[in-house]
Hints:
The protein is mostly helical. The protein has nine helices and no strands.
Amino acid sequence: MKNKRKIHWTPTEDRKFKEAHAQFGNDWRACALQMQTDRTGKQCRERWLNHLAPGINHKHITPNESKIIKNGVELFGRCWTEIAKQLPGRSENMIKNHWHSLNKRGLLRSQASPESTSSESAALPMPTDEIINPPTPDAGLQDIVSAEPVVVTPESSAQNAAWWSDFWQQRQPQAPEDDRSNSPVI
């Protein structure tokens, strides 16, 4: 088997790929073979969906789009596809990278509950204090972003913390019940 390339795409490869895509459409394997390079069909698909598709917006993410992403993560979790549906022209990969970049730069305030110190709970996205009344699944992200600013008080902050604590407890996987009552005794 050939060594598959894991380096940056060159402008020549992009040109060859666009020509192959014009001929074969979304048959990514055929495009990869037509290019006569070491690129795989999966690499071609990812390149098209994240960089070369005509509808992709390559400009910097605006502050309003950033708010939509933050609210989308609070509403949908890390389901980048659902969040991308709210931002036409932005790929799931762009949104995911932007979220992780904000997280890495410390621009997202995360709250870790004092009783949970495990690495699993620390990896979950935690809400900020600004969300007093958590969004409902039927609310659109545009409605959430355009909502009035919320004044945070100690009482509302405690309500918010209690709501999110209940929310995360409900999302914890349940251990299967051990039903040994029907098993034969040996």
